[in-house]
Amino acid sequence: MTQDELKQAVARAAIEHVPSGIIGVGTGSTANFFIDELAKIKHKLDGAVASSEATAQRLRKHGIEVLDLNSVSELSVYVDGADEITRHMHMTKGGGGALTREKIVAACSRKFVCIADGTKLVDLLGKFPLPVEVIPMARSYVARQLTKLGGQPVLRQGFTTDNGNVILDVHNMQIMNPVELETAINQITGVVTNGLFACRPADVLLLGTPEGVRTLT
Ligand code: 5RP
Question: How far apart are CA 202 and CA 126, in angstroms?
Fold first, then answer.
């Protein structure tokens, strides 16, 4: 099976976790497959909250109403992909640059269902560079602080987030304690948020493998 077929399989499996009402929808290629599956059951939905402009556009293209998060008190479920995930459900996200809105929508959701192909499951986070969204004027200051934490920040070239900020991709970061590191990076002035999703981990992982979709909780 190709990686895309594995992503499609988990996107299909995630539909079983979608109740009626309003749900949160992630960003990226796996989330895109999920949106395509969601379109088939759109009659069950009252709408969706999108974690990026790209996701909002794709939802609308399928005729799914996109709602402002401020008009919704709580979401039953948030479905999204990940760049890396551990058995403890800690993730690195933000490869697509949507980490801040993803983290906000995840925070408002009772259940986080992570959908990922088998290559994303790792013992230790850190091989995938850790994205950090930064207010543009603080870029150099934040980069120096991230270096002090042991990483090698690299500015994502030609990229601006949906919030008008820049991304520093931090290479070679030792991520032994994801909760501690997520908190420490968020303390740096000028950081909007970082791509560690450990303080609020996933609740369910649907992992695409050649043998089928594995459910981890
Ligand atoms: C976007 C993300 C994505 O969930 C992550 O990059 C995984 O993407 P893909 O499903 O394309 O592998 O965090 O900001």
Answer: 18
